[in-house]
Amino acid sequence: MADVQVTCINKQPRNDPYEGITHLGGATWHWTRQQVIDSIEAKTNTFYTLVGNNRGNIGVVNGPNGKYLRTYADGKWNDNLLALPECPRR
Protein backbone atom coordinates (compact mmCIF):
# COMPACT_ATOMS: atom_id res chain seq x y z
CA MET A 1 0.00 0.00 0.00
CA ALA A 2 1.31 3.42 -0.93
CA ASP A 3 0.84 6.56 1.16
CA VAL A 4 0.14 9.26 -1.46
CA GLN A 5 0.23 13.04 -1.03
CA VAL A 6 -2.50 15.07 -2.76
CA THR A 7 -1.19 18.49 -3.80
CA CYS A 8 -3.91 19.70 -6.19
CA ILE A 9 -7.53 19.20 -7.24
CA ASN A 10 -9.88 19.97 -10.12
CA LYS A 11 -13.44 21.10 -9.43
CA GLN A 12 -16.62 21.28 -11.43
CA PRO A 13 -17.22 24.61 -13.18
CA ARG A 14 -17.71 27.62 -10.92
CA ASN A 15 -21.39 27.92 -11.75
CA ASP A 16 -22.01 24.54 -10.11
CA PRO A 17 -23.56 25.20 -6.68
CA TYR A 18 -21.88 22.15 -5.15
CA GLU A 19 -18.37 22.98 -6.39
CA GLY A 20 -17.54 19.29 -6.27
CA ILE A 21 -14.07 17.86 -6.71
CA THR A 22 -13.72 15.88 -9.94
CA HIS A 23 -9.99 14.97 -9.86
CA LEU A 24 -7.13 14.85 -7.38
CA GLY A 25 -3.45 14.87 -8.20
CA GLY A 26 0.14 14.95 -7.09
CA ALA A 27 3.59 15.32 -8.61
CA THR A 28 3.23 12.41 -11.05
CA TRP A 29 -0.42 11.35 -10.98
CA HIS A 30 -3.95 12.65 -11.69
CA TRP A 31 -6.96 10.47 -10.77
CA THR A 32 -10.71 10.92 -10.78
CA ARG A 33 -12.45 11.33 -7.45
CA GLN A 34 -14.01 7.89 -7.96
CA GLN A 35 -10.61 6.26 -8.53
CA VAL A 36 -9.36 7.71 -5.22
CA ILE A 37 -12.53 6.58 -3.40
CA ASP A 38 -12.18 3.07 -4.86
CA SER A 39 -8.51 2.90 -3.87
CA ILE A 40 -9.21 4.00 -0.28
CA GLU A 41 -12.09 1.54 0.08
CA ALA A 42 -10.02 -1.31 -1.39
CA LYS A 43 -7.19 -0.36 0.98
CA THR A 44 -4.70 -0.25 -1.89
CA ASN A 45 -3.56 3.32 -1.08
CA THR A 46 -3.90 5.96 1.59
CA PHE A 47 -4.05 9.65 0.67
CA TYR A 48 -3.21 12.80 2.61
CA THR A 49 -2.62 16.55 2.35
CA LEU A 50 0.28 18.36 3.96
CA VAL A 51 0.05 22.04 4.86
CA GLY A 52 3.14 23.23 6.69
CA ASN A 53 3.81 20.32 9.00
CA ASN A 54 0.12 19.48 9.44
CA ARG A 55 -0.99 16.24 7.85
CA GLY A 56 -4.63 15.68 6.94
CA ASN A 57 -5.59 12.10 6.11
CA ILE A 58 -8.20 11.76 3.37
CA GLY A 59 -11.21 9.55 3.99
CA VAL A 60 -14.45 8.59 2.30
CA VAL A 61 -17.66 10.05 3.74
CA ASN A 62 -21.22 9.00 2.87
CA GLY A 63 -23.23 12.15 2.16
CA PRO A 64 -26.80 12.81 1.04
CA ASN A 65 -25.63 12.87 -2.62
CA GLY A 66 -23.31 9.87 -2.41
CA LYS A 67 -19.72 9.31 -1.38
CA TYR A 68 -17.22 12.13 -1.25
CA LEU A 69 -13.73 12.82 0.11
CA ARG A 70 -12.78 14.83 3.20
CA THR A 71 -9.65 15.33 5.20
CA TYR A 72 -9.33 14.40 8.84
CA ALA A 73 -6.84 16.39 10.91
CA ASP A 74 -6.56 17.45 14.53
CA GLY A 75 -9.35 15.07 15.53
CA LYS A 76 -12.03 16.44 13.20
CA TRP A 77 -13.29 16.26 9.61
CA ASN A 78 -12.68 19.41 7.54
CA ASP A 79 -12.91 20.71 3.98
CA ASN A 80 -9.33 21.72 3.28
CA LEU A 81 -9.24 19.76 0.01
CA LEU A 82 -11.18 22.63 -1.58
CA ALA A 83 -8.37 25.01 -0.59
CA LEU A 84 -5.76 23.14 -2.67
CA PRO A 85 -4.66 24.71 -5.96
CA GLU A 86 -6.04 23.57 -9.32
CA CYS A 87 -4.15 20.73 -11.01
CA PRO A 88 -2.86 21.40 -14.50
CA ARG A 89 -5.22 19.77 -17.02
CA ARG A 90 -3.68 16.63 -18.44
What does this entry look like structurally?
- By secondary structure, this protein is mainly β.
- The chain has one domain (2-83).
- The chain is built from one helix and eight strands.
- It has one helix spanning 33-41; strands at 2-5, 8-11, 21-25, 30-32, 45-51, 54-63, 66-73, 76-78.
- The strands form two sheets. Strands 1-5-6-7-8 form a five-stranded mixed beta sheet. A three-stranded antiparallel beta sheet has the order 2-3-4.
- The longest helix is centred in the middle third of the chain and has 9 residues, at 33-41.
- The radius of gyration is 12 Å and the shape is globular.
- The model has no long low-confidence stretch (mean pLDDT 88).
Please name the defining characteristics of this protein.
three-stranded antiparallel beta sheet; DUF3892; 49% strand; globular; DUF3892 domain-containing protein; 90 residues; mainly beta; 10% helix; five-stranded mixed beta sheet
Summarize the structure.
The protein has 90 residues and is mostly beta strands. It has one helix spanning 33-41; strands at 2-5, 8-11, 21-25, 30-32, 45-51, 54-63, 66-73, 76-78.
Helix/strand layout:
Blueprint: E1 2-5, E2 8-11, E3 21-25, E4 30-32, H1 33-41, E5 45-51, E6 54-63, E7 66-73, E8 76-78
Parallel strand pairs: 1-5
Antiparallel strand pairs: 2-3, 3-4, 5-6, 6-7, 7-8
Protein name: DUF3892 domain-containing protein
InterPro entries: DUF3892
